[in-house]
Amino acid sequence: MKQLLLFLLAALLTLALAACSPNANNSGNPNTPAQSDSDNGGESNADNQTDNTVVYAYKIGKIVLTPGELLPLDQLPTPDSVAQVDSCAGDGYDNFYTFGNLEITGHPTAEGEIIYSIYFFSPEVATPEGVKPGDPFTKAADIYGSDYTRNHNTVIYTKDGVDLIFVLTDENILSIEYMMVTE
User: Fold this and answer.
1) Is the pTM of this model over 0.85?
2) Of 72, 136, 131, 134, which is closest to residue 104 (Cα–Cα)?
3) Residue 71: partners with Cβ closer than 8 Å, 6 or more residues away
4) Could you report the per-residue pLDDT of 32-80, keeping only the tens digit for each?
């Protein structure tokens, strides 16, 4: 059990460091897939097209949470915990809200708190399309298509200013994150 927790903590730390690195933020057109130094030469796979009805957002009941949009805290259940940390995406700080096995990062702005990312690693939490940690990546590829960028064990789909990130282990999904594309 301790080894599993250490492994998950290491995976979370890796994602956090990747999010704060200068190469984590895409520039230019937010709908352009991120470039990488992947095994496929940094090129994205585009063998088939993603269904246009798929939206890169997370749903809690009837509430749709999309990175880059305002966080409707008044419509969400009370978080299990809230942590405030220095922001790696902008000036000031970010709030990390934990709702069971789901973590939402918000960044306060003059307009309100903007959703920066939505992260989960538990098979108890799934995307609206039914993909969850523990599933084989082929399930995600069947749903989201092959227009993605792969960098070792990380697969990134980009659409409408949102990266949908799958971290893999042995071609199974370890964690899923929706992240706002920033310049």
Assistant:
1) no
2) 72
3) 65, 104, 106, 112, 113, 114, 115
4) 222 222 233 333 333 334 455 576 889 888 889 999 999 999 999 999 9
Integer Cα distance of 149 and 158 in angstroms: 9
What backbone torsions phi and psi does residue 40 show, to the nearest 5 degrees? Answer: -95, 25
DSSP-assigned states of every residue in 45-72: B-SSPPPTT--S-EEETTEEE-TTSB--
CB 146 within 8 A of CB 33: no
Would you tell me how many other CB atoms lie within 10 Å of the CB of residue 105?
27
**Residue in the structure block whose two tokens are 């190469």:** 23
DSSP state of 44: P
Amino acid letter, 106: G
